[in-house]
Amino acid sequence: MFTVRVPATSANMGPCFDCAGMALSIYNEITVLSGDECTSDAPFLIRSESCIDPRIEAEQPIPCDGTNLIYTTIKWFAEHTGVNLPKFELRQRDSIPLARGLGSSAACITGGLLIANRLCKTQLPVSELLDMAVRLEGHPDNVAPAFLGEMVVGALEGKRFEYIRIPLPEELEFTVLVPDFPLLTDEARRVLPASYSREQAVFNTSRSALLVGALLTKRFDVLSAAMRDRLHQPYRGRLVHGMDGIIDAAQNAGAYGGFLSGAGPSVMVVSPRGKNVASELELYCRSLGPYWYVSPVAPDRHGAVVEEK
Questions:
Q1: Angle 143-149-73 (CA atoms, 0-180°, nearest 5)?
Q2: Single pTM value for the model
Q3: Does one domain contain both 26 and 82?
Q4: pLDDT of 84 above 70
């Protein structure tokens, strides 16, 4: 018996569209039994438990059959490596809400690959598992920090994923705001334009470079400018009632700023340590139509882990 714990992730981080993300201290935990440890004669068995605030819990329950994303990832790994799977059971305990821009699918893929690597006794290194995850997810900005922790900036270079892991400064605090409505990634991508102007491209590339530089050198005074974006947030913001107001309210409360988490609809706020903007944001969110769950959240420093039980 072993357990895999995978962190939530927040991608894009403002201007770093599809190329950066950070790991958060919100976790899905999967306990795995195999062989004689199993309680059923079935080839696999999945049980699921949600630890998510009922007001933001997904409308659809997590599937416990062959369509479960963790299971399909395990099955893909076995077929890809040509190794037979033993009988196994998954006990899934979820704290990452679905369709909220917090990397729930990346957590399933990451967890599935780590489980399959252990069940199949293939002992592939994390670098190979990460390449597989990027291939399955289609973009690296969620799966990379899910595997590695901290902030990860990366790019696909042909078939290779080149990346840099950036420890997030201890002087920063993060607050996540999660609404009671979902936003599917496919829907969030459909609202994006097919092309962008040179001005938009320059705006984002300059802010992306500024954001990475600010975090590496602790130039927090430029974070507000560095987190601005013109490639996805102006379009997706139309689907997220309250996003702009939340970011404005956060800055009024002393935060450096905020950004749409992944494809949304969750919002991440970045502030100086000790500023405690969460309480003021809770007050502001009461004036909004939807319910928003507001909580301080720490960066995850280690990424996904496998532990013996």
A1: 30
A2: 0.95
A3: yes
A4: yes
pLDDT at 138: 83
Between 278-285 and 243-252, two packed helices, what is the crossing angle to 10 degrees? 140
Number of folded domains that form the chain: 2
| Residue type at position 292 | W
Contact 124, 118 (CB under 8 A): no
Mean pLDDT of 120-127: 95
Residues 145 and 222 both lie in one domain: no
Are residues 153 and 197 both part of a single domain? no
Residues in the chain: 309
d(CA 198, CA 52): 42
Alpha carbons 76 and 136: distance in angstroms, whole number: 9
Expressed as residue numbers, the domain containing 107 is 2-166+299-308
Q: Based on the fold, state whether residues 119 and 263 are members of the same structural domain.
A: no
- CATH code of 92's domain: 3.30.230.10
DSSP H/E element including 4: strand 2-11
Rounded Cα distance between 84 and 73, Å, is 14
166 strand-pairing partners? 151
Q: How many DSSP H helices and E strands does the chain contain?
A: 10, 11
Q: What is the pLDDT of residue 55?
A: 81
Q: Residue 157 pLDDT more than 90?
A: no
